[in-house]
Structures are given as structure tokens and as C-alpha cells.
Queue: 2 jobs
Job 1
Amino acid sequence: MSPSTTRRKQSTRPAKRPSSHRPSKAAKSTRVLVWLDDPMAGGEPIPRRASDPAAYSLRVDIKGARPKARQYARGTSGFRYWAASDALARGAKFWSKHLPGEQWFTGKSLPVALDRGVDLNAYYDRRGLSFFHERVGASTVYSGESPDILLHEMGHAVLDIIRPQLWDALSVEAAAFHESFGDICAILVGLQSSELRQAVLAEVGSKLYRSSRLSRVAEELGWAIRQFEPSGAAPDALRNAVNSFFYRVPESLPPSAPDSHLSSEPHSFSRVFTAGAFEAMSNMVALLGKPTDAILAQVSDDFAHLLVEAIRDAPIAPDYFAQVAEQLIAADQDVFSGRYGSAIESAFIRRGVLSIHGVSPSASQRRAQVRGRSRRLGVSRARSIFGLTKLPMLTIPGATFGLGETNLHVHVASEAPRILKATSAAAVTAAQPDAEMAARWFTERLLCRGRVDLGGVHATHVAHPMHPHKTHSLDPDNGAVLLRRRTFDCGFD
Ligand SMILES: [Zn+2]
């Protein structure tokens, strides 16, 4: 959605005089009440020492006044502030460790607005993270109170550091990977809390790959969306990383579907990769032994390390899920000498993201070649060789989409793929389109779903006035219009 359309009603909470951003020594030692993952995950708020998300190299600044650190009652703005502060601090600490020396796309600090008014939504828009509130039945749901949602949105900002080219890439799998990374971020950062690790171990016993409060992401927002549209979210959460979805070429899927079915809508399609990643982590845990607190902590760190490496090295192509999955395996060869290779490979093969024929034994050799090429070109290890360039641009006649004489410029997901036909043969009910076809197709789906702010462009049939949540806009660009992303928004439309 566009930020302007979401500011229908600003919070009427009286503004307090902002205090200096660092908590006082007294505040640092004071305990506040926080959620570990989500208000409806099943636990009670727990006391923790007040934390400061601005204290890390990837600094996060919550806008507005900071209430005095103490144990507020649930339902108060003081409680929500400290619940959010704790979750954001855990995320900032985790990603500062995995992305040393890096900066947010927004610069030295990631601004966060915990309540921008009435909506059932949350988004990242390259200016910061925004959260909202909405009355649902007898209660009010605040998206900025749930650690799962806070960390999902932070995930969009983190991925924008690692691979900014994904922002404008017009392909389902690039957009869906952003959503998947958000959910994986909520899960990985959740696992940094020993209290949550203990709670999950008590719930799942000897096998991590079970539906649990860890695999269920954003239970409360899922509940709220189901009140408005019963088939709009999973029965027990917004999305569940333990699911049975199997890869399909997204262009063969409908643009929307009930939660029980896969569609090409990015949040829906993201569940394929998330399930593969969660199963891969579960396999990694099993490889190390019976799940324990220490093993969960180690696997979450190891998987985050591999994921950052893989995303840097995976070319952005229409079959992006497979590209990332193969680079996870190649990164494991490089970093852990292949320790987790079979754990990762089998999980993504079970999802149809990779084929049993698709993963080449020379993946690690190709990775070594790319590393050598990067070094020769003076590209630091911190940046992918692909990070040097912007994605190529394609011009599409606007008449194709009922936009009259205006030509559209779009960014195409066409970095040279390193693997061919990596997805399962069983998954290919339709041919994988090339990058140009994928971009045309994704553009059409965005317009059909009413996700594009048309600005001044004359449209004959695609205005969608009843759907104000716009993720993209058409901006003037050398006599044509550029289709560019405004936000990754994650709520109810
Ligand atoms: Zn999202």
C-alpha cells in the first residue's frame, strides 16, 4: 500500500516530550514485560531487562516518546512500546552479528513507527517500518505489538541490505522470497531467546519439524484477518512454516486462492520456500542430535550464516527459489565443508524446489569460480558480484495492459542463472517462463490485483478504486513510466 493511503487516521495518543534515545542506567536494569513471539502464541508476557534497539551497529530507532521502563499492564501503550523494543533489539543484535559493517538502505538507522493509525497492516517502504491498529470484534489488534510481525518487517529491511536488486525485480519468486525471508527472520530471531527455545522444545519433543509456536507466524494477525475473511489466513496463524505445499511454476497458479491452496500471490507462494527452509533447519538439528537448547541456538546461527552467503551468490532469475536453495548447499560446502548439505538438499527436494537431478556435484566448484572472479574484480566478500549492477530494464507497450499509448519500463529478473531446470520435473506443469515473460506476467498480475498506483496514467479498466493498498507505482521515466515498488506490505487487503 502507499503510505499516504494508510494514514487515514493518525493515532490520537497525546505526544510526549521525546526523551534521549539511550535508556538511563536505571532503565537498563529495570525489567519490562515482553512477548517472546506473538500475543496469541499461547504464552504469557515475560519479564526481561529493558533493551535498546539503537545500541547495535544495525541501529533501530523507535519514533516518538519512550515511556519509563517498568512493567506495564497489557493493553497499554507502555506495554506495547517495551514489547516492540525488546523484539526489535533482538533482531538488531542478531543481524548486526551476521552483517558486520553493513548499513540499512535507510542509512545508519532504521526508523520504526509503532502505530501510524487505523489499518490491519504493517509494511517496509525503504523509509522505515510502519505498524497500525484496527478494531476487530471486541478487541484492538496492534501489528506493532507482535514480535513475529515486527521481525517479519525487519526481515524485508535486512534482505534489502543483502540484495537490494530484489526490491524492483518483477517476478513472483523474487517478491515471494522477500515474504519468506521475513517469516524466516521471525523464526531465526525467535530462536535467539532461550525462553522461546525452551518453550519450543517442550512443545515439539524430539522433532523440530512439527507445528509449534515457532513454525506458526503471527497468530494474532492471522486471527484478525480470519474475522474479516475466513479463508484469508492459516487456521492457526497468519502463515505456518510447517505445511505441505509443493513447488509449482508460479505462472501456472491463480492470482489468489483460499489459504489452503497455493496461489501466485507472493505471501501465499512464499510458504513453499519457508517450509523448505524450516525443514532444512529441522534436518540440521537432527543431524547434530536430539534437539537441545544449545543445538537450536547453533543451527539458527549456522542457517542464518548460510542464508546470507546464498542470497549474495544466487542470481536473480525467474526460478529464484531454486537458485537460493542451490547456493545454500554450495555455501555449506564452503563454510562447513558440506556438513549440512544433505540436510538442506533433501528438504528442498521434498518441496520440489530442487530436483534430484538438479543439484550438480560441481556446485561448489562453480562457487569457487565465482569467488575467484569476485576477487579478480576487487569485489569484497561482503558483496555479491551481482551486487555491482542493476537489473536490466524492459520496455512494454502500455496498451498491452489497457494503459493507452504510455510505455512501461520494468526491471527484469535476468541475472544469468547458474543452474538450469533445477526445480523438480514433477513440479513443471507449465514451462518456466524466461525473465521477460515472467516480468510481463507479474506486471499483469499486479495490475489485475489493483496493486499499482497509476498516478496520472490514463487507464481504461484497471483503476481498482476499492483497493487502496498499493505496493507499486507508475512514475515518469524518460517519456515513459517506470513501474517501481513502494512497499512490501503484509496485512489485509
Ligand atoms: Zn512482508
Job 2
Amino acid sequence: MTTTGNAVLDAIRSRRVVRAMTDEPVPRADIETVLDAARWAPTAGNRHLQRYVATDDPTTLHLLRMTAPGMVQRPTAAITICTDRALAADFGFPPDSAGLHVDVGTAAATLLLAAHAIGLGAGPVTSFSRAAAAVVLRLPDGWRPELIVCLGYPAPRPPAPMRGRARLTWRDLTVWVP
Ligand SMILES: Cc1cc2nc3c(=O)[nH]c(=O)nc-3n(C[C@H](O)[C@H](O)[C@H](O)COP(=O)(O)O)c2cc1C
């Protein structure tokens, strides 16, 4: 089966974390398109225990950035994925349940791909103070901020990507059994 020209696979392959963004605001309708994609992400037990806190307010974004050493970019919008831990407890999830963490990952991947699919740049941030972000975002009790997805338009001449390993092939990452 040929995999070139497949829209989903092409989007997965071409998405990159964007850490340099212009100051052009992202239209609300586009943020809503990205948010709407998130509800299609798979969740443990189909419980949908993640909540999304969206902002395009410059002051809130500035304050949020101050809580986040890992936020290299200056986004014009951000979506913070939170886990509603009170609701999770009601459904019997222990606080350290793997499913709750995995749900954040599936949500983040879906948000990043959705943003990319409509021409937005996006970057995940986990290096931030949960306590400070909760205050800035006025989170209700029991909502834990897990991951911030920065949104904006990619800058025309981005800096070199973060240094890391050369792109791995699927063979590098896979073992077959038996
Ligand atoms: C769980 C997780 C946390 C991350 N946290 C940050 C972060 O705090 N700041 C950042 O700039 N990038 C962060 N990233 C992005 C990775 O550094 C990025 O995915 C990696 O460098 C590969 O880049 P690519 O996705 O463009 O291929 C995070 C990614 C994941 C999956």
C-alpha cells in the first residue's frame, strides 16, 4: 500500500514543534476548530476527564509564559490541557493511574496535529509551574494543569530546531516478537 499522498500520514510526518511565532492573532474560529478536534482523542474508559482552558488574552498569555521556563515561543493563543482529578476520582481512577497520563498525551497529539492541519504552528510545554499556572488560569479546585499547547503562526525564518537525536526510523524503535 502506498503511503505518500495520504493526508493523515503526510500531516503526521510534516508536523514540527514551532518555537518561533509571529504576533498575528489566531482567529477564535481556528482555536475552536482545534478544540473541537480534541474531543475525538481516545480516552481511558471513554471517560473524557480532560478539560481545556483556552486563552488568547495577551496579559494572560504573558503571565502564563512567566510560569513556564519551557515556553520558548511567544504564542498568541494557548490551550492548557487539565485533568479533572475530582471527576477522575469519582470514576474510580487512582491519582497515578496510567490512563490519566496517557489521555493527556492523546489529547496533546490530537491538538498539535489539528493545529498543523489548519496551518497553525503549535508547541507543547510541560516545563511550567503547575501551582502558578493554576492561579493565572483561575482553575477550579481539582483541575490539574498538565500540558500547555502554544498556538500561533509560524515565524517566516525560525531558529534552528532544538538539538536532539537524528530522526529515528521505525526500525530503530521497534522489535518484532517472536
Ligand atoms: C511530553 C512532552 C513535553 C514537552 N515539553 C516541551 C517543553 O516544555 N518545551 C518545548 O519547547 N518543547 C517541549 N516538547 C517538544 C519536544 O521537545 C519535541 O517534540 C521534540 O523536540 C521533537 O520535535 P518535533 O515534535 O518537532 O519532531 C515536549 C514534548 C512532549 C511529548
